[in-house]
TrEMBL record:
The gene is bioA. This is Adenosylmethionine-8-amino-7-oxononanoate aminotransferase. It comes from Nocardioides humilatus. GO terms for biological process: biotin biosynthetic process. Keywords: Aminotransferase, Biotin biosynthesis, Cytoplasm, Pyridoxal phosphate, S-adenosyl-L-methionine, Transferase. The modification N6-(pyridoxal phosphate)lysine is found at K280. Homodimer.
């Protein structure tokens, strides 16, 4: 039976509260949500008032909202066809997106698997690692090496490489594949001796477990939802050396860091992995799409495994509408001086957030690329901090002990100033 509800804001929110789950939110005692009814540029209209979006809709909407180029890509492709199965068929939007990804990712990454979400791309990457080891004569290599403090998504294999103690998935520890964890990399700016000590520990762990390890997976340069932790680029070279020494595949999860967010188009420009996972900003935040880009050597190894094929094929793999938007988003990004824009956002955030280090209850503030983070010395009161930010005209979504921002690249200086005020008010309230 179909029910009809009134469409006024109060009725919509009441129905939402009774029937809809939100991320990491109780169904029986939900935290408040706010109603969005419009969006443009770097702003959302929330409960009838325009606020600056400090989150890029969880790091994805790098071009903001209602961008005419991306809107046109939607219209053009929807006017042809929005979806067709990728099994046994192909189409121009997927081919053109594949061409762009091969062109803009580091040399050697030239085989593209189009998945339908970031978590799924990590699942596919981990399957690829295991199948490669089987195909190259090492079926006993079934564990992944990773570092503490990481986050790679909410599906099962993804949860197994997320920090098992401090991460969001500790309750599933007994059910997940048991992976090998090394210490978290030192913080960005650490001296050479600290990096060397971490590298020594990592090498020791790899030496102990090399016979059972299949690959290494990390978020390069910036750990995201695990703690917004930037670390030195020298650590990436250590990971590459260990992978090569022990015959492991190196996987970089750049779902959050890709497409310019850290100041690099991809962090993989610093050190090239064997497998690269992309998502979030891939479509400019318009629709869900992810990609796994890998080498010819990995593809040949997988072909030598039992099945001879990658054992994964989502219904919406290679969705034409998503692919068309992704190509338009990539062209839009590369057609601007995105590097200067990211640098400008980062500089303004660094200047604006630095004074918060003197506020009682603040442990640290830090920036990397177009990312700003304020870390408290206690868990954030999410409701109070969010209320304070919205009252200041800003949308933020704090978690754990962090109040942070990853704004759209199109944000104006006035909006950045409002954003800094909103973060300041959230810190005082949180």
């Amino acid at each position: 039976m179909t029910t009809t509800v009134q469409t006024g804001p109060e009725e919509l929110l009441a129905y939402d509260r009774e029937h809809l789950w939100h991320p990491y939110t109780s169904m029986t005692a939900p935290t408040p949500v706010r109603l969005v009814d419009d969006a443009r540029g770097a702003q959302l209209r929330v409960d009838g008032a325009w606020v600056v979006d400090g989150m890029s809709s969880w790091w994805a909407a790098i071009h903001g909202y209602r961008h005419p180029v991306l809107d046109q890509a939607v219209t053009d492709q929807a006017g042809r066809f929005s979806h067709v199965m990728f099994g046994g068929l192909t189409h121009e939007p997927a081919i053109e997106l594949g061409r762009r990804l091969v062109d803009i990712t580091p040399d050697g990454l030239e085989r593209v698997f189009l998945a339908d979400s970031g978590s799924v791309s990590v699942e596919v990457a981990m399957k690829m690692v295991l199948q490669y080891q089987r195909g190259t004569g090492h079926p006993d290599r079934i564990r992944m090496l990773t570092v503490r403090g990481g986050y790679h998504g909410d599906t099962f294999d993804c949860m197994s490489v997320t920090d098992p103690v401090g991460g969001m998935h500790a309750m599933w520890a007994g059910l997940l594949p048991q992976q090998v964890f090394a210490p978290q990399p030192p913080a960005a700016g650490a001296d050479a001796a600290t990096v060397a000590a971490w590298a020594t520990t990592l090498r020791h762990i790899a030496d102990q477990h090399h016979h059972e390890l299949a690959g290494i997976i990390v978020e390069p340069l910036l750990q995201g939802a695990g703690g917004m932790h930037p670390y030195p680029p020298e650590c990436l070279a250590v990971l590459r050396e260990i992978a090569d020494e022990h015959g492991l595949l190196l996987v970089f999860d750049e779902i959050a860091t890709g497409f310019g967010r850290t100041g690099h188009l991809f962090v993989s420009e610093i050190v090239t992995p064997d497998i690269l996972c992309l998502g979030k900003a891939l479509t400019g935040g318009y629709v869900s799409l992810a990609a796994v880009v890998t080498t010819d050597a990995v593809a040949r190894g997988i072909s030598g495994s039992d099945s001879g094929v990658v054992m994964h094929g989502p219904t919406f793999m290679g969705n034409p509408l998503a692919c068309a938007i992704a190509s338009a988003s990539i062209d839009l990004l590369l057609g601007t001086d995105w590097k200067a824009r990211v640098s400008h956002i980062g500089d303004r955030l660094a200047t604006g957030l630095a004074p918060l280090r003197e506020v009682p209850g603040v442990a640290d503030s830090r920036t990397i690329g177009a990312v700003g983070v304020v870390q408290l010395d206690h868990p954030v009161d999410v409701v109070a901090a969010t209320d304070a930010a919205v009252a200041a005209g800003v949308w933020l979504r704090p978690f754990r002990d962090l109040i942070y921002t990853m704004p759209p690249f199109v944000i104006s200086d006035d909006e950045l100033d409002r954003l800094i005020v909103g973060i300041t008010e959230a810190v005082k309230a949180g």
